Amino acid sequence: MFENLTVLYAEDEDFIRENVVEALEFMRINVIAVKDGYEAYIEYLKQKPNIIITDIEMPGMSGLELAEKIRKVDNKTPIVITTAYTNVEYFLKAVELQLIKYLLKPITLIDLKNTLNKCVENLKDTTSIISLNSCSTYDLYNHILIVEGIEKKLDAHERQLLELLLKYRNHVVSYEQIESTIWEDGMSNAALRSLVRNLRQKLPEDIISNISKMGYRINIK
């Protein structure tokens, strides 16, 4: 059930992080483990995980600050907050940020599974399959591109670019936004052009437009 999931997990305590990562990997989940909110936000932009699990209190950027930052651009990705104690103010903030669950430590395997099940149901409730045209679709949940009945394999950068363009479909995505999402160490113009060219070859014709000196746009009716 969880095989296709990628979970971003942020926890500053090594022992807890290692135990939870082990449990997630036992469930055959792809895990991106980080130690603080800043790292988590960078990985969120780069990897676009299916689910985010974050401790509430971490050095630098807290879990709630991380969730608030993500919710400014993304109100669909399930976010779970973990904490060692209850706090009414935190709970109300979690509700405001549309978080899936407020998970109390110590985290048991049963609680973790139940939380993931709830996240998966939430993902299924959102429209995950986007029609690119009358005979082409992209499944955001399973990362599957179908063009005229044929599955087209995407590499990691192609998938990230396609999902970024689809997130802002029919609007221009700036070169800067593409760079910050896909390339950690900066991108060259040649690298971007090559990536767009390769992605275009796998998509319906003329679906991606280059807007001069601004960025790219995916056009969906």
TrEMBL record:
GO terms for biological process: regulation of DNA-templated transcription. One of its GO terms (cellular component) is protein-DNA complex. InterPro entries: CheY-like_superfamily, OmpR/PhoB-type_DNA-bd, Sig_transdc_resp-reg_receiver, WalR-like, WH-like_DNA-bd_sf. SMART domains: REC, Trans_reg_C. Residues 127-220 form the OmpR/PhoB-type domain. Residues 127-220 bind DNA. The modification 4-aspartylphosphate is found at residue 55. It comes from the Bacteria. GO terms for molecular function: phosphorelay response regulator activity; transcription cis-regulatory region binding. CDD domains: REC_YesN-like, trans_reg_C. Residues 6-120 form the Response regulatory domain. Gene3D superfamilies: 3.40.50.2300, Winged helix-like DNA-binding domain superfamily/Winged helix DNA-binding domain. Keywords: DNA-binding, Phosphoprotein, Transcription, Transcription regulation, Two-component regulatory system. This is DNA-binding response regulator.
